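Re: your question from the hallway

Yes, I did run it. Sequences:
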Amino acid sequence: MKPITRLFNRAPTAEAPPEIERAALRSDRFRLEREGEWKRLEAVVRRMESGRLRAIPDEELLELPALYRTAASSLAIARETSLDAATLAYLEALVQRAWFQVYGPRIGFFGWLRRFFGGGWSAAVRDIWLDICIAFAVMVAGTIVGWLLVESDEAWYYSLVGDGMANGRVPGASAQVLRQSLDGQDHGGGLSAFAAFLFSNNAGVSILAFALGFAFGIPSLMLLMHNLALLGAMLWLFHSAGLTMEFTAWLAVHGTTELFAILLAGAAGLHIGRSMAFPGNRSVVSAAAESGRRAAVVMLGVVLMLIVAALLEGYARQLVTDALARYAIGGTMLVFWLGYFFAFRRRPAEAAP
Amino acid sequence: MRSRQAHDARNARKRREMVTPEGIALPITLASRGSRFGALLLDLMLIFGLNIAFSLLLRALALGIFAPGGEVKNSSAMLEFIQVMMILFGFALFNGYFMFFELGPRGATPGKRLTGIRIAARDGGRLTPEAVIARNLLRDIELFLPLTLMVVWTILSFTGEGAGWTILAAMIWFLIFAFFPFFNRDRLRAGDLIAGTWVVEMPRRKLEQAMSLGESAHGRSTATGVEYRFGEDELSIYGEYELQTLERVLRDNNSEALVPVAEAICRKIGWSTGTGDERAFLEAFYAQLRARLERDMRFGKRKADKHS
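Structure:
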């Protein structure tokens, strides 16, 4: 099959001329004069669709935009001059297929991943800086509220933390019990922590915080508030047992990564919600689409951060029990993320249209 | 006539117009919800198949490495490692599969390709990688998350830990997203809405033969030598709709259909030709009718059908 199409590609005008004279209709002569180029476009598009980009010679790839525009203008003319339904339908389908190739994503999955890590992700994070600030303020406020609530009335602790999560870490528990819970044996092995990650509190919270952005971002903020209130309550509990440093060290190992991820997820949800509430000159749907695309890049990063956090929680926290070393790990991760997002400023090379 | 209108109305609901950056309006046919569901099922089957194949491979490898002599040493660490690997692989597969294929030149997963559909940007512009990523991240929220939660909470409720209302909540969550495409005009799921994409039918048409190449298109029948010439009055009866119906009949070239069509036209224009030369007669009539309609078209005069 291939040699035949190839033959056809190389000499598109070879078989056309004698027939053109025989056509009785002007619109058919128009078609016969151009049909060689259409077929060449079709051959290029078919080969691109089959995904073997490397098998296509460069000159054919370079021809694609020109052939596409020729076919598009043929279609525009044919619509005004021809009543040949089959040819019109063919041209419409051909132009559409070529349009998919000319305006397709152009870079594959791995090319996109490279761009994602090489600056696309951090650029997206920087783009939603305002939402990050808002979400951060909400998280800080949530922690303080949680602390103050439990301080004023211990009953709040039970309604905030719940039985399943408390795991013996309740007001009035002895410092020893609390210290034990920080020792590294509380979460079985690496596997249980890792499996827990996939459906655990934190991954669920991040994805929910993002998804609830649809409702104008309010539920995202409430979710952040509630979860950080929980943290504030726990913080108060350990503080009252004199274990502030141990608790924060225990938390820091994976917490700097995990809380950062939750922060970004909430900010991404808020970003969608905010642009839907204040779309400006755009329609609500197109505003949601635009911010959704940006937020999706952030969210993909959030998922990766949560995997890192789960590995830290599952392995690093079990192996390292010294408070200072735990601080060092957590601090390093925090510096790494901050540096990557805000100091690493290589804009990804945008594919030219 | 009525069936034509009903057919047009059915199609009109699926037809959309999309304007390319060059300003060419292209007709687009939205994919049916059935073919999208079928594509999803095919893809899920493929994903599960790959997942099972990978776990079998991993098991064989692990047994080969850790237990060459058939005895398992340190089995719990090995099991844990395998399980973590499988979770990671399954996670990457579930999330990467759709993105990988939809970022490819076909814009379609294998399931979509089999059902003849693909994704496209709604505004006629470039389909950006970010859009593909966004529509597939939302898939987690629409499909995988509520379904996993439903399973997990159902299992928990057997052990007495879960509550019934959580399962119900997950089910409602799932149903809201599952029926999302039924409640908007463009059949968007939530991911399409956020990403600015839609799912359309993959166009595929072959270039048909030009119609006016034969002798009969010039009015001469090769079989009988008769010359068919139609006057202005005879050609002014029909419009574009009839012309394109005639085109379809001629392209199908079904001799049983040709005869009644030729008879109907003869009756309408008041001709009486003998039988046996219907195709040449119709080709001549088609060519001359089209020449006339296209000439009028160039002067900005169009005749949609015989009633106008």
